[in-house]
Every structure is written in C-alpha cells, then in structure tokens.
Write a structure and sequence with these properties.
- Helix content is 42%, strand content 15%.
- It is built from 13 helices and 10 strands.
- Strand 3, helix 7 and strand 4 form a beta-alpha-beta unit.
- Helix 9 packs parallel to helix 11 and helix 12 crosses helix 13.
- The radius of gyration is 24 Å and the shape is globular.
- The termini are far apart.
Length: 351
Amino acid sequence: MVKKQKTKKKRSLKPSRWWHWTLIILCFLIALVYSARWWNPIVFPPVKDPIIGVSFSEKRSKELGLDWKANFTALLDDMHISTFRLMSYWDLHEPVRGQYDFSTLDWQIEEAGKRGATVSLALGQRQPRWPECHQPTWTNDLQGDDWRQALYDYVEVVVKRYENNPTVINWQLENEAVNEWFGLCGKPDRERIHAEYKLVDKLSDKPIWMSLSDQHGYPVTTPVPDKYGYSVYRVVWSEKTWPYKGYLIYPTPIWYHKLRGAIIKAYTGRDIYIHELQLEPWGPVDTKEMTVADQEISMSEARIKDNVLFAREIGAREIYTWGGEWWYWRMVNGDPSIWNTVKDTFADAQE
C-alpha cells in the first residue's frame, strides 16, 4: 500500500484580515484625536458669547504668596471678569463655634457688586481648592448628628447673610459632592447632602447649582438642583492610574461631554454648566515649586486657547475657569504672557 504524503501548508506572510482591520481602525481613531482641533469647530460649533467666569480662592492666592485683594481687583479691573465663583470657607468664617467673621468675603462681594459683576457662592463643607473639605478644627470634637448640625447652622448663617444681596445670583452647594477619590473628605454622606439641599431650598429663592464628581458620573443618588456642573480637565499628573504614573491626557472627546449633558437633561430636565475648566497646571508638586517648563507641560498659552474653545464646543453657556490666582502669580513674578493670553482669549470668545 502506498502511503499518502502529507502536504505541508504554506505559512502566509500577510497579516490576518482581523489584524488588518484593527490597525486601520486604530490609525483612524488616532488621526481623529490628533486632528480634532481642526474639525471640532465644524462638527460642534462653539457657543457664541458664552458667560466666562473664574473661581477665585482667597486661600489659594495667599498660598502663592500674593496680595489676594490685589489679585481679585486685577481680575475685576484689568481682566474684566464679570462672573465669579467665590468660596464661603467654613474654617475661615467660623474659626470659633458661633463666632463669625465674614469681612473678607463681604469685601469680595462688595467689590464685585461695585463693578456690576455677579457671584455664584459656594456653600457647605466641600468647596474648591485643596484639601477640598474646609471644616474648622473645633469640629474635630464633634461626631454624628452634632457635627452635621454644626454644618447646617453655618450654612444657614451664610444663606441668610447673602440671600438679599443682588450680587449673589445663585448657590453652588457642596463642590463635587460625591467625589470620593480627590480631597481629604472621607466617604460622602449622601443623607447629609440631601438634608443640606432641603435646608438651602427652604431658606432661599436663589437657584441652587451642584457639581458632579469630576468628568464622570451621573446624578442618580444626589438632589436635583436647578443646574448640574462638571469639570473639564485636559492634561493632568496622575498617580492613581496604576501601573502608570505621570501626565495623563484625558481621553474625553467633545461628543462624550455633549452626550453626557444630553443624558442628564433627559433624566433630570436640567441643563449643565462647566464649574471648573482647567486653565492652570496640574503637576506632581504645587505649581509654585514647578519651573515654567514644567508648568507648560499641562498648561501653556496654546493650551489655554484650546481649552476655552473646547469648552465652548461642549455647548455649556456658563463656564467657570480655574487658575485666576496662577495667572496673576506669573504676572507679578515678571511673566505677563499667561495673563495676557487669558485676557485676549476671553475677549475673543465674547465678541
């Protein structure tokens, strides 16, 4: 019997069809990302004449070694900012229980009002700038309901103080209220957040705005305020994206933000605003300890222009930017380039 010889299959040197299409799609997506700055304005027309404001922190300005009053006045008179998010830091204004000192906040609101500017006032324990939660040290001796009541008492004092002040147009309650990954705040107390909202709603006729957790998340277990905010950061230093450690470019395109806003609108009937648009560096150390070259890795003149355009393309009319203290710090230290770029970019956007 003659044995049949096995024929040896020739190996193909060509990649499989699966890999072929995977590479094509991957290259296409990369090309879309890197060419977005050219086609985004066509597909997503920028909002015309947006309301561009700035978050200003007396604490942060002092941390940078600045004259915080001069910093704030420059934003009003030279930058011509007409919309501010200001902070009612609990530890700053009630350093001793039952003893209040609102002199610095009163001054900011009065100066804004003199120039026809408006103020969106942050309320609660969690407010912008590290460590995010700003409770006074005397609250360390309180627990449970006693601690919560102390916070409610403070929030009530703030609301009653500024309720009839026409410069304060709305409240921003508990900045990123359920954000668990950033700040020294502990686990969010959702029951307390709902109680705070009910308290403010009872005391005030002004709109209540709330911001969501970072660039992600949906308002499922939070109160339903008059408007929802979320942040837009583009390039940040990250130590939590294990195993990667370094600068991270957020992969959130405009269509993602627009879709998220549409879902929130459909689910709650509420519009969105941007409560923090990154216009300052986010590096491995505090900005004042970074060289200019290090600062420009995550924020430069070009990124400032690009980020403002990106925010306008998202479609939110109200945009609160982040970095007014840094712009001024660079200027008083001999480099006005950032300050002038922000000033010109805002003016161009609002023509």
